[in-house]
């Protein structure tokens, strides 16, 4: 042995492998070696203590490099004894209640601490002076010893659980021995990075696999110290190990390998663990490295790259480059953290050139291997926690056929790439279908017959898509070939997975965004599979639509579209009933239409304010929806009155818009009027309360000063509303209060308010003449007939509820085309009670101060006491020509005209006064009074207030003089005074269904027709052909 330690040989070895030391003689070195081997001091003959034995080993390590293996093996025990003493000290302190966590009173710890420092200093000096010789050896020794110590003492009472990584790291770093080993390994790694990083990282991975999870704190500390190096080298080593252990795998399912963490690939689990520890602080670095690795595997290999085992070593191997993508898929499958970090950004990299490179790389793989990879990709997509919307858009855009125009600047992909994405998308939908419909309810375990692998309770891909329901619906409604089928199927799965809330939102979005019947059909197709599993889906969807209206989340265009879609859905039920469809599809569509109709019916009071919406398109759509919706069976009177007011107001607005020729959203004003007419008919037929409200509001609206022009009326002239007349002269400043304060026996009329009469103000001249506005006669006639048509419909016994779609319009020929049905010019039988409502409304609006009981007629001289009221009545008729037509409707519903007695009396009194005062040679010089006289007598005859012989006198009025007309009208007054218009004089005819009056009970009529015969005899040359009309 002494030959080994000759001076020259020792000097050479020291120069090469260790720092310069003081020279020992061969005899001294021999004694040191014997003492180290035997553990006995050779000079004193006593057993060496642990401390002395360790110092002897250190001296040999310094002087005899050939002994380094044995010395390092011996030092394992020294470190182990120190760590054991360290934990004993901690446990003793814990038992005694001490709060200290570092330091101790154990003798072994005190004796060995300086030895540990000495060993640490020697190893660091060796690594610094000759890293290539010492760094690989020390790194392997240190990391293996750290793994052994971590596993051996993991069960101690003072050791935290392996899941508490921060506490575990803090504990081990407070121990001098393990801290020394960690620093040595860090120095070795720093020295080896430049020339041999794989060996150091391989040792780390091997130890991590062997001692995980107790070794995780070492990996966490090293990774935090060298994040870039550890991440890249761990990935490179994992790739090489993945390829070395059986890639490609043609006999086993790649997806099963990915899910099973105890895979036959030994290091990939450790790679996942290390990257998982580093992800909390270095997620960006990990993401960049993974994406760089993916890009480098597809790009051409670098030219003139060294074929060493450095960082770029795997890039020069075509086999490793081909295995990179499967390796990354395996990593993502084993770590949801890594999957979430790269999924969103990876989609941005998949441009057509990259996709072509991927296709070329996997073109030569066996079919089974490709299917396994697609299955793994589908699994990863379904478990992707972020970027699901991007992935879906990418797959849909890439798989869309070339004949479909894709939105955006994305170029058309290659046919092979398109087919692969098509296949991937179909597999994804199938996989999601299995996951959604095989999910357990609550804590119910999965059936063993469905799958041997437990399905996840949460599907991250669908969870992330729940926030993009609106975008998904918008893409589905584009109706692109194949694309909308995929998205619609996904929307259905998402609705089932998300439950009633997501299904309701999806259906609401489809109802809101659909722009034509084809797009609206998608809502029915979505409802069909969901209706069986989600009860009450459509009522919830309609309620959500109403909530959007209340919160004003929709603009005018979207709101109008929603209302039109709801109306189309409701009307489809009527169309199916007309067509008599009995197929399964039509029955399902009809079922949805019925449910939509019922849901809309329960929210009519929410839709009715939209009739008065500022946007014409919205108001017309609301009228269309309400016109085809059934009223609820039970509805509060307040809601009914609210609906009736809005419907009547919209009716007059629609008339005005039709006159202006306004066409909105493809609908003419006539269609909007048709919707309003049908709505009013439905409301009137609902109940007697609604009938009364609708008719009363129609009369009030027709007589309103803002609607007069629609029916040929006059605008309100100056001074009619009580406002001062600016053209009559300066204001004299007369105060009504001052006048009332002047008490006296006479009334001072000069300049006071009492001097204001209908012709003007005494002392200030006549009122300026009011020129009536000129209206289009055709439009006025059309509006007039439309108003009368809707009133007659409301008053008719049929009620108008049998009309179908309310899309017809009114025309000027007296016919109303409604739902394709032509109504003849013959008036429908008018309900007597409805006509009475109109009569009362007329009296209230024309003459508010008249009591309903004033049915009897006083003598003609009594008219002098009601001059003011009679003039007001006449002015109302002058300003509102529609009054005569309304009187005719009232007359048709006998005996309702009796309740208009006060209005008829007042108008007749003013006509008598006019004809009496007239000095014109012919009645044709007073056209309005002539027309009013004829219409009044005709109306009273139609209402059977006058016998036929008196009701025909209007036929001779145009041929008479004013005096003769007054004479005949005076005979009418006398008849009315002698035969008061009482409803009790009418008898109901069951055969005809109307009331009639038997004039034979009223006595002799001959005394009332004597003036008529006198006038006829006087004008026999002109009226001879009319004599037969006045025979009793």
Q: How can the largest sheet be summarized?
A: 3 strands, antiparallel
Q: Return the structural class.
A: mainly alpha
Across the major sheet, the strand order is 1-2-3
Which oligomerization state do the chains in this entry correspond to? single chain
Unreliable residue runs: 1-22, 98-105, 249-265, 305-312, 404-411, 441-456, 581-586, 718-730, 745-757, 798-826
The residue fraction in helices comes out at 55-70%
The Rg value, from CA coordinates, equals 52 Å
State the end-to-end distance: 165 Å
Coarse shape: rod-shaped
Number of helices: 43
Total beta strand runs: 8
Mean pLDDT: 76
Beta-strand fraction estimate: under 5%
Spell out the key features of this protein.
1032 residues; 43 helices; three-stranded antiparallel beta sheet; INTS5; disordered N terminus; mainly alpha
Report on the structure:
This protein has 1032 residues and is mainly α. Among the domains are: 24-91 and 109-195; 634-714 and 777-796, no CATH class; 847-1029, no CATH class. 61% of the residues lie in helices and 2% in strands. It is built from 43 helices and 8 strands. The strands form 3 sheets. A 3-stranded antiparallel β-sheet has the order 1-2-3, with no helix packed on it. It has a 3-stranded antiparallel β-sheet with strand order 4-5-6. The radius of gyration is 52 Å and the shape is rod-shaped.
